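User: structure tokens for Chaperone protein HtpG, please.
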Amino acid sequence: MASGKINVSVENIFPLIKKFLYSDHEIFLRELVSNATDATLKLKHLTSIGEAKVEYGNPIIEVKIDKDGKKLHIIDQGLGMTADEVEKYINQIAFSGAEEFLEKYKDSAKDSGVIGHFGLGFYSAFMVAEKVEIITKSYKDEPAAHWTCDGSPEFTLTSHDKTERGSEIILHIADDSVEFLEEFKIRELLTKYNKFMPIPIKFGTKKEALPKPEDAPEDYKTEYIDVDNIINNPNPAWTKQPSDLSEEDYKNFYRELYPMQFDEPLFNIHLNVDYPFNLTGILYFPKMGADLQLQKDKIQLYQNQVYVTDNVEGIVPEFLGMLKGVIDSPDIPLNVSRSYLQADGNVKKISNYITRKVADKLKSLFNENREDFEQKWNDIKIVLEYGMLSEPKFYEKAGDFVLYPTTEDKYYTLAELKEAIAPNQTDKNGKLVVLYASNKDAQHSYIDIAKEKGYQVLLLDSPIVSHLIQKLEADNENLTFARVDADHIDKLIQKDKETISKLSDDEKEKLKTSIETMVPKENYTVQLENLDSNASPFIITQPEFMRRMKEMSATGGGGMFGMGNFPDMYNLVVNTNSELATTILNSPEDAQKDLVKQALDLAKLSQGLLKGEELTAFVKRSFETLK
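Assistant: Done. Predicted tokens:
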């Protein structure tokens, strides 16, 4: 028997580990199972190169609960340790690493350091245990060793009669951590952190039906046997080559990742790179629609098949945080609890790679089956539009596959759109005017007027469209976007032809003055326009600039400061060539008020602005005219 004192200047280091190094106590199980996996994989390597003259076999890792004894066991069949190795790796390296860590990060120990660099994973056991034992037998022909420590710098190291290769870690669970003796809790942690570890993990047993014998009698009852309950999938889809996977394999893996998700993913992107960094993974595009209230933190980050976190900010470009799936890379630097990213040049390279890979995949999908891509557009557009705004490298490639749908369900790329509308929608100043609507039903009358002119109207209804068109206008000379209800169609796309007014200048001034006294000045600016006699007498429009700035302000940035709090302002466009304009002008004052009120309400109704008491009064008044 040997005993001793661990050589460390920080007195009673275990409470410090418990307090500072790990913000989440439950990860102790992840660390211990990860260590067991490492020990097993190292043995596999040594046997493959002939350095270990033993049979590798089919090793597993077993996790067992002894609730009565208040113990948790983690058992592996890996390469094990000799007594000298226990002394070296458990008593010296880990504690010198811990001392170095605490000295280096004494002011911010909670958030810094890399666990793999310090060898601290084993000591996470003391977050939940009042005493820890290691019983280990090396693959070398040497006696087994038994190490015991009660959470102080004191330890004992004795020989043991264990004959099977591998290590057993025994945690004597502390009174404040008895939740980790519950079967459901351990199963939950193994499923969360170790679901895809590369070595099979046994947790208890389960019943499995025996095959029915061919000569079984009619009253045969199915027989069951107890088999190992393996809780993980050691060979998840992302560890395989894309050529070895079918579409059904990808969908099955999606269900494995998200068992409570019932919608099928739209498509997937398989990541696989080994230079200049190592990264594998599968990203899925789920159905999303045009909602800015997006669920993030659905991409899971792994290191060598060990779950780390679902906060992938920094690794995955922000716009792709809306996707689902898995990323696995040993080259991503993490802090001591493997839960937070550290600043590193590789992280940006990985982010750029993922951006490029996603763009290339989208282009490929577009080219291979454009019709299918168009059908999925409304479910993916918010991600792609956000990507165009937030990632310059993605924006550069987006022109090849980002679509602009019309109210007639035609889909154009920007280059195709410009070519299609140039003959008809170029104004007298040589500017190409792209008309768009944000709501097909609410703006139907305006869309209809544009269609009568032979114009095409886009349907752009995502919440960030104002930001996007602002960027497109800045990057495309002589291109402007105008919402179809921003003005009368002849004002939106001005041609050389001018319509002459039936009214004289004096009559127009008189008409304008009369109408201005009858409409609320705080919301409406009266404008007289010489339009076609068949055009609507009264039209309500919302100026493009003010409305766009308000929308940009509402969705974050881009607008003038405080613009989002400005009241909605509208133009009331009066067609001087309409019969109604002439009738109003020639009517007595009381009749003018009734005509203007009815015409204004009709214009408001077409814009969806007539509501509440005003709508009730309008309906009542309209019925009275039918008597």
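User: Anything notable?

Assistant: Residues 85 and 138 are 9 Å apart (CA to CA).
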